[in-house]
Specification:
binds adenosine-5'-triphosphate; zinc-finger; 8-stranded mixed sheet; Rossmann fold; 6-stranded parallel sheet; alpha/beta; disordered C terminus; 23 helices; 2 domains
């Protein structure tokens, strides 16, 4: 057996009893001392615990008191705020909401190319050109300039504004162009041209606002033609070079019309024999660019475009903006409106150097003007009449027509004037229905809207312009900027939600100094706010306000609010918080991200 096994088995060495007793006594003695010590410790511990408990209790009480105070304070603040809110008028509340929206608009990234934004490039001086006003105009005093502006109701804003010039000849416009203008019975400049052309000729960035049909197209095309002439004369453009400038339009139809004007002026110059041939390109969706291939094989001076196709062409390097220094946006408020501005920034990103930027429109609400102004370089603002006001040469008639009676009443309305007449509807299906109805009634009518093919749209415009068709039924597409000869009557079958659209639609008549009538159908389907916008617009233009429209009350009056126009859309009958344009802008923003210029028209 192994001894180790025993060790593990509880072996105890022997200790004598006396020794064991003594040891136990010693142990008991220490135990006694320990017990006393333990008691003391225990008592101390209990005291401390009690103190802890008392402190904890005190803390709990303090906390509860504090919480009660905070709660009370919060309640007080809350009730005070509630009292304040209750004390605020609806107008004050609306104003606060408006301010929030305005702040959001103001925080938009400024309009500049990605490179400029990334590198923080800002230009401080406008581009310079070799153009100078004649010395006798330069010698006039500022007061004399102001007198001319006053005479033509031209408002200006900006630094070092070039002088207004009352005669085309004094603007140093080439003779063949003057002759061409004369052939179209254009003898002297309109107010927007009197101030806009000299400012643009001087190389200045420009915001030009003037009512529909007041000759804005010439005001932004002439400066580009002059710049192109100057550049071509300096060093002729070879294949792959150019363009010098680009004109952006919100719809294919408007781009086509502007391009046709530019081409006519280019031809007039070339025909004279003393001026070089300037080449222009129409760059819009829905057409094959092959037909214009020969232009791309020469030096290119001017491009007229809708944004989508332009971005395509630039991205595919069909031409570049390396020599481009002029960018004009027609109907510019639409272009830089919430939702479309990304495309504009994208286009700007193709510019490699400073450009002259011009924005023109009949409607440009204050906020869009402010935003645009921040993005331009030392801009000149030229304003003829209130932005968004109706053309005073249009007699505006608003009629209450029940929905089901509209078609029959339309026939009656068509008797008011001789053709050509435009009928506007907001809805594509309704446009088709109206055309069908008119055709059934034996009226030569064409229709145009965003879902029609490019060929159908071109055919409609061509046959209506040539006089082959008497009536054109159109959706909003045809309302912006299209210049048809002698339209005497515009019928608005369904009133657009945005008053700006109404202003553009009635503006297809009463152009270049002629008069025209606009008849608008409204009924209980027309929102009160739209009716209010319309009522104020009629009052502003000193038009007759029918009783049913006069009776539409403005809730802002009851709330004691100020009757300011909406800074987002310019409508006079509402504030920002219920602006129809903001909703639409969001919708369009989403649409524009899905890609534009694929079907509807530029936008
Ligand atoms: N100085 C002028 N005198 C007479 N007619 C002019 C003059 N300038 C332009 N016009 C003519 O006036 C018509 C309207 O011009 P334009 O289309 O440029 O107007 P607009 O201001 O651009 O209108 P909108 O805001 O509707 O686009 C055109 O037929 C044009 O030829």
């Amino acid at each position: 057996m192994d001894s180790n096994t025993y060790d593990d088995d509880g072996y105890e060495p022997y200790i004598p009893l006396a020794q064991r007793k003594e040891a136990r006594l010693k142990k008991l003695a220490t135990w006694g001392a320990n017990a006393e010590k333990q008691r003391l410790i225990q008592r101390q511990k209990e005291r401390e615990e009690q103190e802890d408990e008392e402190r904890e209790e005190q803390r709990r009480k303090d906390k509860a008191r504090k919480e009660r105070t905070l709660l009370l304070e919060a309640q007080e603040v809350h009730s005070k705020r509630a009292q304040e809110e209750a004390g605020k008028t609806a107008d004050q509340k609306a104003q606060e909401a408006d301010e929030e929206i305005l702040a959001a608009i103001a925080s938009r990234r400024k309009l500049a190319s990605d490179m400029e934004l990334a590198k923080g490039i800002t230009y401080t001086e406008a581009l310079t050109t070799s153009w100078r006003p004649p010395h006798y105009i330069r010698n006039r005093s500022e007061q004399e300039h102001a007198g001319i502006r006053e005479k033509f109701h031209i408002l200006v804003d900006g630094d070092d504004i070039p002088p207004p010039i009352e005669q085309f000849a004094d603007m140093k416009i080439p003779k063949p162009l003057l002759e061409d203008l004369k052939s179209k019975r254009i003898f002297s400049p309109t107010p927007i041209q009197i101030q806009g052309i000299p400012a643009a000729f001087a190389g200045r960035d420009l915001i030009g606002i003037a009512f529909t049909g007041s000759g804005k197209t010439l005001a932004f095309c002439l400066p580009l033609l002059m710049t192109a002439l100057e550049e071509e004369k300096k060093l002729p453009f070879m294949r792959g070079e150019g363009p010098v400038g680009v004109i952006l339009c919100p719809s294919r139809e408007l781009a086509t019309q502007t391009y046709e004007n530019v081409q006519q002026w280019c031809n007039a110059l070339a025909k004279d024999g003393n001026y070089p041939q300037l080449n222009s390109l129409l760059c819009i969706g829905g057409i094959s660019m092959k037909e214009q291939g020969h232009i791309l094989n020469q030096g290119l001076h001017i491009v007229v475009a809708t944004p989508g196709r332009l971005i395509d062409m630039l991205s595919n390097k069909r031409f570049t903006f390396n020599n481009c220094k002029y960018l004009c946006m027609d109907e510019a408020d639409r272009m830089i409106d919430l939702g479309f501005e990304d495309d504009v920034r994208n286009i700007m990103s193709f510019f490699t150097r400073q450009r002259q930027t011009l924005l023109f429109s009949a409607t440009m609400p204050r906020k869009i003007q402010d935003f645009a102004q921040q993005s331009l370089i030392k801009p000149v603002l030229v304003n003829v009449g209130r932005a968004g006001a109706a053309n005073l040469d249009v007699l505006q008639v608003v009629e209450y027509v029940k929905q089901e009676a509209k078609m029959v009443y339309l026939l009656e309305c068509l008797q008011k004037t001789a053709p050509p007449v435009i009928v506007f509807s907001e809805n594509k299906n309704e446009v088709d229905d109206i055309q069908e109805y008119l055709l059934l009634k034996g009226i030569e009518a064409v229709a145009i809207h965003g879902s029609k093919s490019q060929e159908e749209r071109q055919y409609a415009i061509k046959s209506f312009k040539s006089g082959a068709k008497d009536v054109m039924v159109a959706s909003g597409v045809a309302s912006k900027g299209l210049d048809f000869n002698d339209i005497q009557h515009v019928i608005i079958f369904s009133m657009p939600k945005e008053i700006e659209d109404y202003v553009h639609q009635i503006g297809r008549t009463g152009r270049s100094g002629k008069t025209g009538i606009a008849t608008t159908f409204v009924n209980m389907n027309t929102p009160d706010q739209t009716l209010l916008d319309l009522k104020y617009l009629l009052m502003e233009a000193s038009q007759k306000v029918p009783p049913f429209l006069a009776s539409v009350e403005d809730p802002r009056i009851a709330q004691g609010g100020a009757l300011k126009g909406c800074p987002v859309c310019g409508g006079l009958g509402h504030g920002i918080s219920n602006c129809p344009k903001l909703e639409d802008a969001q919708r369009r923003q989403m649409a524009s991200h899905r890609g534009n210029d694929t079907g509807g028209g530029g936008y």
